[in-house]
Amino acid sequence: MTLSGTTFSSLSHLLLEKRENSLVAFGAEGDITWAQFVADVSYHINLLIETPQQNIALCARDSYLFTVGLFALFHAGKTVILPGNYQPEALEELSSQFDVLLCDDAISPLRSAETQLITTGHNPNPHAFAPLDPESIQLILFTSGSSGTPKAIHKTLNQLSVEVEILHSLWGEEIPNSRIESTVSHQHIYGLLFRVLWPLCAGNSFARHSLEFPEQITHHANQNTVLVSSPALLKRLTEEHLPTRLRCLFSSGGPLPFTAANHAEELFNFRPIEVFGSTETGGIAYRQQVTEQTPWSLFPKVEAELNQENCLRLRSAHIDPTGWYQTADECEFVSENQFILKGRTDRIIKVEEKRVSLVEVEKRVDQLDYVQECVVIPMQQAERLILAAAIVLTDSGNAKLAELGKGKFWLLLRNELRRWLEPIAVPRSFRVVKEIPLNSQGKRQVAELEKLFQ
């Protein structure tokens, strides 16, 4: 199959492909070829077919072992559950949703001699690969659950396939023969698509392990590398100044500050491609920030309209094949397929019977000369609801805090904010942090934020 002039394999027919010794994955453990990948999947399919349980949770740190497990589960006809993270408490919380947990230790690559037996036809029980039924293969993802009970999101292989094809139609010609490095987990929809599924379909190789620190990104960067990342890590590149070229750079999981986009271009000679979406919708729009008001462009095959509250409604085969999906994202269309995000209506709360937009409060706090970044959350205090702000200070903010002390500094911030906000919307409690707690997908860790004020 060919899309955008490049070779492309569908997810349903992927394991039927003949790719000889093309590279699938790379890491400190060594390179993984296509023959090794097919042999490993074949071996684990035979094991899983003998497993009577149907609902299997897959949670692996190694992206290659994860991929082997994923396709073995698909071809064994199992329902795949993807927990949001690897933490024991999080897995225990989801334990009622699955029968068996499949992790790194249970997915062992075959030794080279065993691989040779399978690829040369001497394996006593080789698996005969057949095309997958895109509608019958089920995948259940869970949101991270950082602010409440994890939510199950059901996907079919067809929905994943449609989105991978969209990604390849948009950027496939830009990244042939690339090596995919990532700072985000394959356990989430963004990492699953950009780090594993799309590279496999497009014949690009991917790293087995994540990059976790800014210096690792610059060390691994080169003109053949595509980086799949998030604002959480890209914002931490401020101390990196040695330019190193990247083939392409993607960011998703939250808004990327304009300053971070500019700095990334200075470092990597590539302005980040931001992808907008969610676990429920997958990717639905993209942009490369030229200004702070650069609009988002809808993905091909995605229809969108606004409801009465100016919130985005979406329709696409990879979102919900049966109808429209309603979001809480307030938008303004600037053309038929481009829009500007205004914020989320589900971040409007009532404080003493008055409507307060948390997005608006954060915007006003961020405008202060003393504040680099902030997040505002509602907190219950002595039977009343108040707003609490975790703030990262600028150099001038740290200097002013040292000069005035906390009490007078908080009073200064509140007086400044009253120029824009009603008293009820001014945060009553502040905490200074070195950085806003985010997970690897760039999502705010609400539970961690709440602990700051307890």
UniProtKB/TrEMBL annotation:
InterPro entries: AMP-bd_C (IPR025110), AMP-bd_C_sf (IPR045851), AMP-binding_CS (IPR020845), AMP-dep_synth/lig_dom (IPR000873), ANL_N_sf (IPR042099)
Superkingdom field: Bacteria
Entry-linked Pfam families: AMP-binding (PF00501), AMP-binding_C (PF13193)
PROSITE patterns documented for this protein: AMP_BINDING
Domain called AMP-dependent synthetase/ligase: residue spans: 26-298
Domain AMP-binding enzyme C-terminal: 360-443
Name of the protein this chain belongs to: AMP-binding protein
